[in-house]
C-alpha cells in the first residue's frame, strides 16, 4: 500500500494548562492513537481563553494539516468560548443544534437538574457543524470542515475520539524501534548522522537519559516501511558495537533524566 | 506598584514530545516560576524537528511576547537543529562561541572523552548571542534578543532558567485563590459569569472534577491585586452558599476527572 501523508494538529485551549497548573494528558493519548492509524501529529498550540488567540490558531492549523483537534472550553461557564470562536474562525453563525438540545434536555430531565441557559450553551455549535457523540457526559463535541472540537477532560476527550475515529483517513501505520546503549550522544553522533542520511524515509531521534547505573541514550527510529525500519535499526546496532557499546533493546527504566553528551 | 504586563511564550522542539511518547515537564515548571515573577505564559507551540516550523514559531512568538523560551534540540546529534534555526530566524550567522568552546574543551579533557566535531556543535550559537550557563552538563544555552534557548532535559532546563532568572523583567506577582464545591458547573455558571463581569481584572476559571464521593468543581481566581482577589473569592463563596452548596478551600483530592456540567 502506498503511504498517504495524513497529518494532524492539536489546539489545547485553556489558561489552566498554560499556567502549568493542569498538565495536559490529551496530546499523549492523541499522538499515540493517531500514530497507530498512520496519522502524524505535526504541531500543537496551547492558547489561553482569549478569542483572537483561539481563532488564529485554528485558522492557521486548519489550512496546513489534514486534521485539527481542539480540546477544552466547551462547558457551560463564561470561560468556555471554544464553539463561538470556531464559528468566527469559519465565519458562520453560532446556533443551538436541535439534536444536541434534545440529548441534553433528556439528560437533565432524568437527572432532575434544571436545563438552564448555561447548560443550553453546551448545545451551541457553528452552523453546519456535525455533532460528535459524548457517551460519558452527554454534552456533544462537533466537527466543522477538518476541525474536531472535543472536551478537555481526558476521559471525555477519549470517548469523543473513539466515536469519530472511524471517519479519519488513515495513512500507512507509523512503526517505531528503540535501541538503547550506554555510549554518550557525542560518541554516537557522527555515525548516527550517517545512518540518518542513508535512511531519509526513517526519522531517527536521539534521547539521552540517566539511570542509577550511569548514563545512556535511547535511539528511536520511526517509519512506515517495516523492512527499511529493521535495516536502519540493524545499522544502529552495528554502529553501537563498532564504538565498543552494547545495544540494548527497548528503553531502560529511567531515573531523573540527565544529559550524556 | 503599578502592574507591568510582562508576557512569555514557549516553543517546545521535538518529535518525541509531539508523538506523545515523551511528556513535556518544562511548561509546568516555567509556568509556575514565571507566574511568581508576574510574567504570564501566554502561548506554547510544540513543533517537530523541522527547520521551517521552528523558525516560524520563534519569529511569531518573538514579535508578540516579552520573552520566548525554547526547549530541546541543542545536543550533538543530527536531530539537534535549534541553534541553526534560531540563527536563521534572526538572519545572522551561526558561529562557534569561544567561551563555549573553552568550557566544553575543559569538560571533555577532564572526562577523557574526545572533543569531536559533534561535541563542538554544542558550542555553536547565532552571532551576537549571549551564553546561558549550564551548571549541570556544561553545554550552554544562549539568548538572542528576547529568545532564550534552553535544553529539553528538565533538570538542565531548570538550571539554565535559574542562571538567567535575575535578568527577567518582573511584573506584578500573579496570585491565585481556589474555591471548590460540589455543585455542577451548569448550576454555578450564571452567577459565576456575573462575578467575572464585576471583576474584569481577575481571571476566573471553572474546572470540573470527579472524586470518589461525587462530582464537583474547582473555581480558580487569578490576579495581581490581593484585595480585589480576596473580594472576588468572597463573592464566589457567597454564590456557592446561595445556591445551597458549601465552599471548600483549595482543591480536593482528585480521582479520574469527569465532567459535572
Automatic annotation (TrEMBL), chains A, B:
InterPro entries: CinA, FLAD1_M, MoaB/Mog-like_dom_sf, MoaB/Mog_dom
Residues covered by the MoaB/Mog domain: 9-171
Name used for this protein in its record: Molybdopterin-binding protein
Native source organism of the sequence: Oceanibaculum pacificum
